[in-house]
């Protein structure tokens, strides 16, 4: 190699060095920028169960046999695969479930002595890992009369019958049962994110103060949609129990229609992974059959822990896929990663 060619090679190497260094620096900066997101693995708990594959979202079809880990195909959060890291039964498992039981202040619940007896028996049947709270839906808010407790007798003592006069009083209007759910989501009595959350709500589901009304084409109620989003953000699974007094507390009060209330239940269930409790368009004479159905749902539920590929406190879309063709996995449309309650 001549001195002239050596000089040219050295000059070319020097001219390329800044470009190579700049490219390497840019690549390093890119990797550093994406590394926190690509390596984020936030444990997130989901309450899931199986439903028939042909059942529509929100359809009152009831659960199948208890979900098993092998039924789970793929879980995605925010469009990214979230590997399953834990699988436990909801009842009698290692996780605490907080169940808030709400009563409609516009209904004469407990007027039939057997009604509260059925509920108290349901309390006693629940295993020790379930804590029970009791409250009333009142003026768009929730009035908690018993905070979460494992004492079944204490929870039962919080059940107080509403008289006809109390239920008919304008002071006791629920102010929209779904607004009450939103209030509960924003003011859950216990902020421990490690505890699972559910609400059993006794109401007719009729929205009487919604001036916007429902969309006549798709029957979507805006008040229900807001409640659904709030419940998903706070990780609460709803179980609305249809109850409408046989005798209206006040003949001048607009009672709406039973079908409207149950359509609202279906809309709520579709987004949250909950399940409406009703048979036909009338209130049950005994609460036991529907409460037994709820217990069966709890038995079929599984607590699935996943490694969410996002930092804690991020609201993300949840996509579920089963390994079986005859079932689909049921859960909320969205989940808060890390089960962290967002700042209000």
Which segments are poorly predicted (pLDDT under 50) over 5 or more consecutive residues? 5-16, 24-38, 211-217
Question: If strands are numbered along the chain, what order do they take across the biggest sheet?
Answer: 7-6-5-8-9
Radius of gyration: 26 Å
Largest sheet: 5 strands, mixed
The counted number of beta strands is 13
Order of helix and strand elements from N to C terminus: HEEEEEHEEHHHEHEHHEEEE
| Number of separate helices | 8
Commentary on this structure:
The structure is a single chain. The protein has 344 residues and is an alpha+beta fold. It has a domain at 1-39. The protein has eight helices and 13 strands. Helix 2 links the parallel strand 5 and strand 6 (130-138).
Short description:
This protein has 344 residues and is of the alpha+beta class. It contains eight helices and 13 strands. Helix content is 32%, strand content 26%.
Topology summary:
Blueprint: H1 3-38, E1 42-52, E2 72-77, E3 80-81, E4 84-89, E5 97-104, H2 113-125, E6 130-138, E7 141-149, H3 152-157, H4 164-168, H5 177-186, E8 196-203, H6 222-233, E9 236-242, H7 258-272, H8 288-300, E10 302-308, E11 315-322, E12 327-330, E13 334-336
Parallel strand pairs: 5-6, 5-8, 8-9
Antiparallel strand pairs: 1-10, 1-12, 2-3, 2-11, 4-10, 6-7, 11-13
Provide key terms for this protein.
344 residues; alpha+beta; five-stranded mixed beta sheet; globular
């Amino acid at each position: 190699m001549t001195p002239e060619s050596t000089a040219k090679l050295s000059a070319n190497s020097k001219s390329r060095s800044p470009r190579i260094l700049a490219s390497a620096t840019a690549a390093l900066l890119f990797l550093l920028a994406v590394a926190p997101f690509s390596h984020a693995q936030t444990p997130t708990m989901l309450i899931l169960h199986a439903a028939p594959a042909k059942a529509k979202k929100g359809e009152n079809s009831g659960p199948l046999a208890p979900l098993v880990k092998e039924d789970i195909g793929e879980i995605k959060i925010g469009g990214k695969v979230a590997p399953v890291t834990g699988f436990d039964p909801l009842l009698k498992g290692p996780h605490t479930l907080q169940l808030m039981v709400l009563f409609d202040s516009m209904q004469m619940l407990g007027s039939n002595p057997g009604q509260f007896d059925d509920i108290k028996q349901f309390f006693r049947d629940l295993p020790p890992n379930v804590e029970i709270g009791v409250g009333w839906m009142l003026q768009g808010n929730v009035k908690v009369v018993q905070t979460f407790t494992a004492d079944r007798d204490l929870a039962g003592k919080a059940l107080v019958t509403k008289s006809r006069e109390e239920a008919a009083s304008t002071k006791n209007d629920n102010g929209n049962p779904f607004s009450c759910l939103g209030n509960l989501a924003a003011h859950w009595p216990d902020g421990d994110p490690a505890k699972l959350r559910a609400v059993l709500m006794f109401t007719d589901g009729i929205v009487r103060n919604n001036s916007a009304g429902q969309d006549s084409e798709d029957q979507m109620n805006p008040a229900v949609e807001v409640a659904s989003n709030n419940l998903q953000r706070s990780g609460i699974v709803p179980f609305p129990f249809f109850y409408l007094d046989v005798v209206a507390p006040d003949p001048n009060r607009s009672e709406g229609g039973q079908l409207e209330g149950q359509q609202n239940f279906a809309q709520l269930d579709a987004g949250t992974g909950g399940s409406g409790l009703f048979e036909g368009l009338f209130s049950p004479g005994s609460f036991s059959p529907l409460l037994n159905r709820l217990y069966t749902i709890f038995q079929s539920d599984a607590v699935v822990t996943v490694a969410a590929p996002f930092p804690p406190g991020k609201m993300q879309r949840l996509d579920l896929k089963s390994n079986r063709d005859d079932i689909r996995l049921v859960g909320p449309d969205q989940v808060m990663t890390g089960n962290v309650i967002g700042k209000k």
